[in-house]
Amino acid sequence: CGLPLCLRPARGSRALRGPMSVLLETSVGDIVIDLRTEEAPIACKSFLKLCKVKYYNHCLFHNVQAGALIQTGDPTGSGTGGSSLYGLLYGDQARFFEDEFRRSLRHDRAGVVSMASSGPNTNGSQFFITVGDHAQEHLDDKYTIFGEVAEGLDVARKIGAAYCDPDGRPFRNIRVRHTIVLDDPFDDPPGLEVPDASPPPSELHRQQDRERLADDEELGGDGEDDPAAQDEALRVKAAKSRAEVLEMLGDLPDADVEPPKNVLFVCKLNPVTEDDDLDIIFGRFGAITSCEVIRDFKTGAVAAEGTRTPRCQRRRPRPRAGFRRLAQLRLHRV
To answer: Where is this region: Disordered (predicted)?
Structure first.
């Protein structure tokens, strides 16, 4: 074992007799995990102590594979972060610990808890729970099994059924809110700092909730489980987040700014479009007092946006955005 002596669980000690358990309070419900201290003492000790120092609080379930597994444990939510207990104590050179494979432990049912890794001996803080009843033999002898779900398998399966994007990230954030160590016979290693209370959400967590639906955000109506409603809510949140960035950059006076009701955005203009062309095209829908095609101030080419303002709003199409060539025509009503 490459770990310092103070971190090696002693065989035959009380730490290796009887089950140890951790309660994960998630935004969907509670999950109790019994740890396999005999078969994976290094992984169990790291996991227990990370739970004890509230390392997992606010972590996203960032990888959900329907009918297979759910993954969490990365404080960054990116799937590439996280450190073991040993990395927290001794620096980046001890970020990962070695695999602990046992032929008696297989990914053969739902509720198996394993370390997530990117290769041999790269176990950090991330872990996953299987949610499929079938055997997943491709996981055997690649990922260290260190526990099993004792209670709350229905909660894990509910997370596994969440509506996700193509990368497996739920559209509605699902988090580990708290971790409670129910039994920890391992002695705390020197230098381990245990907080008195759960840490508050960081700016990263708030940013994640601005980009996605927050775990406690209500859609209203009957849209809670409707993928289309979640898509629409996520689209609105993403647009709001981008507007806030533009406001910080000074490109927008206010993130909540809206175009005047008598201004129409027209998309996909031909690069040779002139102001008079727009007047001819849109004049049949109502009187137009002015047209303006936004152009690059250096090249004079049609820029990416423009508006028009019609006299009559009855036929006014809704503003649209996101096209490469967007003409902005100001058609002021009289």
So the answer is: 185-230
Q: How far is CA 285 from the centre of its chain?
A: 45
Spatial distance between the Cα atoms of 59 and 74, rounded to a whole number of angstroms: 6
CATH code for the domain of 281: 3.30.70
Q: Using a cut of 0.70, tell me whether the model's pTM lies above it.
A: no
End-to-end CA distance of the chain: 82
The pLDDT of residue 242 is 66
78 residue type, one letter: S
Least confident of 8-12, 126-130, 290-294: 8-12
- The domain containing residue 293 runs over which residues? 263-330
Q: Cα–Cα distance between 28 and 151 in angstroms, integer? A: 14
Looking at the structure, tell me whether residues 154 and 224 fall in a common domain.
no
C-beta neighbour count of 85 within 10 angstroms: 27
Q: Which residues contact 114 (CB under 8 A, 6 or more apart)?
A: 107, 127, 128, 130, 139, 143, 144, 145, 146
Q: Are residues 114 and 14 in the same domain?
A: yes
What mean pLDDT do residues 144-156 have? 97
Separation between Cα atoms, residue 150 and residue 21, nearest integer Å: 9
Within 8 A by CB and 6+ apart from 184, the residues are 20, 48, 52
28 token code pair: 């969907």
| Residue partners of 236: CB distance under 8 A and separation at least 6 | none
